[in-house]
């Protein structure tokens, strides 16, 4: 599977081995890693390379990850999917601290979710946040995720079980909220092309 998503401000593309140094730089920051379940702290270049070796172009959408790239500034973070313990797709994401506060995760997630629901028949995607991570919960609420329960989840960076808010986004909710989404600023006027196709290019093959 090959995907390239262009949101206007961001490029979402499949990870490459040359991303390793920037990934390691951003994730070797407890302020980032401490919000994630599966990222150790400290985080080394070898960790980034090991993870990148698991990223293959033929992975299904439910296991696809994107590097978030800011043109002119390089790798800013990552967003993607993995199969959770219940056998359902889970979306996760992180953004390097220098890029916080710009709305990038919301923008990247909208593109990734548009493509996900477009190329799969899945009825929902799961996610969640540690209960102290209000910024991430606000992003998910804005995207249409709703709380479906509370649990605990092991955080590698903290080496502890942490209280977790479990969330889901249904296909129905995603389609519903898309109707009220403003068009991208770069959308051509009087175009007959669908907004999703203009906001980002999603190619599979």
Can you characterise this structure?
By secondary structure, the protein is α+β, with helices and mostly antiparallel strands. 29% of the residues lie in helices and 28% in strands. It contains seven helices and eight strands, in the order ββαααβββαβαββαα. The strands form two sheets. A five-stranded antiparallel sheet has the order 1-2-3-4-5, with helices on both faces. A three-stranded antiparallel sheet has the order 6-8-7. Helix 1 (20-27) crosses helix 3 and helix 4 (104-119) crosses helix 5. The longest helix has 16 residues, at 104-119. The radius of gyration is 16 Å and the shape is globular. The termini are close together. Residues 183-205 have low confidence and may be disordered.
At a glance:
The protein is of the alpha+beta class.
Give me the number of helical elements.
Answer: 7
Total strands: 8
Give the overall average pLDDT. Answer: 88
Structural class determined from secondary elements: alpha+beta
Tell me the strand percentage band: 25-35%
Q: Any descriptors?
A:
205 residues, alpha+beta, five-stranded antiparallel beta sheet, 7 helices, disordered C terminus
Topology:
Blueprint: E1 4-6, E2 11-13, H1 20-27, H2 30-33, H3 45-52, E3 65-70, E4 74-83, E5 89-95, H4 104-119, E6 124-130, H5 134-143, E7 146-155, E8 160-170, H6 171-178, H7 195-199
Antiparallel strand pairs: 1-2, 2-3, 3-4, 4-5, 6-8, 7-8
């Amino acid at each position: 599977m090959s995907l390239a998503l262009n949101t206007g401000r961001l490029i979402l593309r499949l990870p490459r081995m040359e991303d390793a140094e920037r990934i390691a730089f951003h994730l070797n920051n407890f302020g980032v890693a401490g919000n994630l379940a599966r990222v150790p702290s400290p985080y080394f270049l070898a960790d980034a390379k090991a993870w990148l070796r698991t990223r293959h172009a033929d992975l299904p959408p439910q296991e696809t990850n994107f590097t978030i790239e800011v043109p002119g500034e390089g790798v800013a973070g990552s967003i993607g999917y993995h199969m959770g313990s219940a056998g359902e797709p889970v979306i996760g994401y992180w953004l390097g601290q220098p890029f916080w506060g710009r709305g990038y995760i919301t923008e990247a997630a909208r593109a990734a979710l548009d493509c996900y629901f477009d190329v799969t028949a899945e009825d929902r995607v799961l996610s969640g946040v540690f209960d102290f991570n209000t910024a991430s919960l606000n992003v998910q609420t804005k995207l249409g995720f709703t709380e479906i329960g509370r649990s605990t989840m092991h955080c590698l960076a903290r080496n502890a079980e942490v209280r977790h808010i479990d969330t889901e986004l249904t296909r129905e909710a995603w389609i519903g909220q898309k109707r009220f989404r403003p068009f991208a600023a770069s959308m051509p006027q009087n175009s007959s092309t669908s907004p999703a196709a203009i906001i980002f290019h999603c190619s599979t093959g």
